[in-house]
């Protein structure tokens, strides 16, 4: 693409609900082209503060349904890629329960094009090998379906949780866990880092961060509490789409 101008567009949102029982959600779908080179990227991930397995399962089933409409192997690869991407190495935990993540999708080659060739996403993609070529129109339709799945995936969770009563304990834990969101965005998120390194508009780049946040030195959740369950189960990769009570 040397010598060509470039075009980039996308849509992005982050919601940080006040009620600790309503999870934070992030969504981004984007498109880039420069001369003959083009690709789609993006995804969605859910960051709960309190552990409700039915919420994680609902989101993942909606995302799997959206993916399966276009290709049966999209969800397994892009779900694992999401688990890999939204991982805080210095904390050895995921940011949340994941969702979908993909990049550099131009309809050719293997599905996984990330930086970890030895990870689960790469292993699954390598097992599949090179897929049949997919057109621009097919990939645009896939991204469109993913975008349209957002409301059915997220709104039922909000409706279930938004009127749940909470106190200072839950609010303080939410603010503490929001710190992980800040850490990820400032240390690992490629979009945030790129924007800051290229002298982008700082207010726009950082507006996805939560408005209130707190840190606590050496925090450990009390055993046998919802907070402990979040760490034990929800911050590790799970097969949420096939979860059963």
- Specify the structural class: alpha+beta
Tally of individual domains = 1
Return the string of H and E elements. Answer: EEEHHEEEHHHHHHH
Number of separate strands = 6
CATH third-tier fold name: oxygen-dependent coproporphyrinogen oxidase
Low-confidence blocks of residues: none
Strand order of the largest sheet: 1-2-3-6
Distance between the termini: 51 Å
CATH superfamily: Coproporphyrinogen III oxidase, aerobic
| Rg (CA only) | 18 Å
Query: Do you know the CATH architecture?
Result: 3-Layer(aba) Sandwich
Helical content band = 40-55%
* Strand percent estimate: 15-25%
Q: Give the CATH level 1 class.
A: Alpha Beta
Which overall shape is indicated by the principal axes computed on the Cα atoms?
Answer: globular
What does this structure look like?
The protein has 245 residues and is of the alpha+beta class. The chain has a single domain (7-242), classed as 3-Layer(aba) Sandwich (oxygen-dependent coproporphyrinogen oxidase). The protein has nine helices and six strands. The strands form two sheets. The chain has a four-stranded antiparallel beta sheet. The chain is globular, with a radius of gyration of 18 Å.
